[in-house]
Amino acid sequence: MKQQEVPNPWELVESEFHPQNYSLNATLFSLGNGFIGLRGTFEEGFDPEPFADGCYLNGVYASELITYGERAYGYARHNQRMLSVPDGKQIRLSIDGERFSLAEGELLSFERRLDMAAGILERNLVWRSPAGKTLELHSRRLVSLVEKHLCVLHYRVTPLDFDGEVRLISALDSGLVQMKKSDDPRLASPIDRRDIRTLESTAEGGHLALRQKVLSSDFTIASGVLHRIDCDGACEQSSQQGKERAAVEYRCMARRGQSIQFTKYLAYFAEQNRGLPDPAQLRDYLENCATRSFDDYAELQRRELDSFWSASDVEVRGNKALQQGMRFNLFHLFQSLGRDSRTNIAAKGLSGDGYEGHYFWDTEIYILPFFLYTQPQLARGLLEYRHSILDAARARARELAIKKGALFPWRTIGGEECSAYYPAGTAQFHINADIAYAVRHYCRVTGDTDFLRDKGTEIVLEGARLWLEIGHYNPRRDNRFCICEVTGPDEYTALVDNNFYTNLMARAHLDYACEVHDWLRAQEPQAFVELARRIQLEPEERAAWRRAADAINLPEDKALGIHPQDDSFLNKPKWDFANTPADHYPLLLHYHPLVIYRHQVCKQADVLLGMFLQSSEFTAEQKRRNFDFYEPRTTHDSTLSACIHSIVASEVGYPEKALNYFRQVARMDMDNHHNNTQHGVHTACMGGTWLCMVQGFAGMRTQDKQLSFNPYVPEGLEGYRFRIQFRGRTLELDAGTDRTSYTLISGDPVTIHHGEEILRLSEPGQPLVCKRESAEVYAQ
Ligand code: BGC
């Protein structure tokens, strides 16, 4: 959605209805609470765009056999596909026999507003029917952030110039219209509906329910609706019970100027191999929810969001569009995040079914830092999810002839590898190191040793064993430890030897494995003995990790002064960018993978990402040389790329580039830069927005237990402010063009670095101000 002006950066407003933006806006206006996700479609639907709808439950999927033309041993067998569950938003409206639809009649006014401080989507319109009757429609919707299973919709219809019959059919409908299979690997394939059995359909009074079983995955889904209607005139009610659809119809006699109000309480429950509330319990649940009004839930929602924003907001001064983009992205991250340690955050959140609802490394590298530094307990849940899928990761490792340890799936929901295209899937072994990196990051920032003892160490050690299994000491490389046949983050270069990122991250992983091994043995000997027994840890493994870490091969080209992305990258010809038409991007939709693979061309940051994550191992000069080399070879066809370029640009002294990348990142979905937001938001890029600000412009780094900043404000912005949590403390940084202030908001005194300065923050609420030019420190 192109926004010219942004009067209020807490809101996203659609002030004119453009049918061609319907699907895109269904993503942008989607609501979620980490469990339920509702696309931002109209209650009445919009016939020209039948595919735009979707209601999702995080972690709830159908399992389907992957059909290969040619199979080979160990290919992923099943895909797990996020389901669209029965649509309970549906309200069909007609007046005096004429169906309300924005595809017909005349729209006299229209506005849709997503209020990100309130967590409410609201729509106001005035419509004249083809027969010339005018009505006003006001609808509000929320997916409760406090009541995991609940959504509440409020609907008000007012005849403006007629007395007549208003007919409302409110449904719970599982007959979703699906798109056909496409060649775009980023889109979801259609679901075989035969896999979903409706066990029960109920329509009694204002109560509707559907109970369904997903045969392939053993999920049971219970959806229910309860209505409260408020109408002054006569109102008849009748139920419609179909196999896939339950509905209630209200026929109300309405008078000009008098409103009919309607509240719809919608609940979803889902369990795999476990009990669910029975129909009577579901009804009781809804009855209980319906003792509160929409406004009551709105109040609770607001309180929850107040606390979210007070911990997480990033104030961006001097550019309202970027401020809005930042808030929009953080809001969507909060809406998308699984909070129960059994679910995670999908590449498209709960806003669309692109990438089929799969979880990727996006979580650990791009998204987790935002939660870690703002609501660490939520970050812990993400890592606990990884622990919960360890058994599946062990089984996957065995399929790949890895005798010990675990191989985490490249993409999954329930834990099994779902990537059918292994060169850009399973071959991305770096996922193990990414997860270990996140465990280390989490433990450094929180000091949570309980997690490290109970789950973290196991994740790290089991993951680290992989490297010894797939790497080897290469006599032709001076016995350096080499890892062959892997794909790094850059998916335009596949199945290579010694991918720089993979080797660098593997080294850090092996290092950390030694560290946590020693820590557990010394600090929690009982837990160590139990873990060692459980995973059959051999005494010599630790030494083997140390040796491999010390001997790891990191490709380096002394003449160019850069780190080649892998052993073969520099031997390839550079992609002919000059003769690539603009409409041939993303390359993946226009060229066979082999054409792409044999060129020097990157989809996304790879070496630069490694240098950012292991920042202290490289000088600014090394980073700059690599930036200069890779940037012109990078298409940024992945939305995971621009944010890393922004951060590294900040660090190497390219503020203009840093800001330009940030502009794209912050408004990636709002401005639909990649032209596919209609299939869902890009959660990794949303996390990247926070990273650009906090780790890019403010230069925040965490080295061991030490926090450092190196803030600047790029020309074009006036400043920024954010809070972070660090080891039980809350700190605030406020950067202006000529000064930065640091405030300890709560918690014990702490020492931080500001550039070369060392600052002691000891008085809560007392800002320490550093002037930019002189870096002089004085108390205000
Ligand atoms: C990127 C991957 C990413 C995936 C899901 C792909 O386009 O290349 O790095 O994990 O999207 O966001």
From TrEMBL:
Its EC number is 2.4.1.64. Residues 327-690 form the Glycoside hydrolase family 65 central catalytic domain. GO terms for biological process: carbohydrate metabolic process. It comes from the Bacteria. The keyword NAD does not apply. Gene3D superfamilies: 1.50.10.10, Glycoside hydrolase, family 65, N-terminal domain, Maltose phosphorylase, domain 3. It is an enzyme of class 2 (transferase). Keywords: Glycosyltransferase, Transferase. The active site is at residue 491. Residues 14-269 form the Glycoside hydrolase family 65 N-terminal domain. Substrate binds at residues 361-362, 603-604. Pfam families: Glyco_hydro_65C, Glyco_hydro_65m, Glyco_hydro_65N. Residues 700-758 form the Glycoside hydrolase family 65 C-terminal domain. GO terms for molecular function: alpha,alpha-trehalose phosphorylase activity; carbohydrate binding; hydrolase activity, hydrolyzing O-glycosyl compounds. Belongs to the glycosyl hydrolase 65 family. This is Alpha,alpha-trehalose phosphorylase. It comes from Microbulbifer rhizosphaerae.
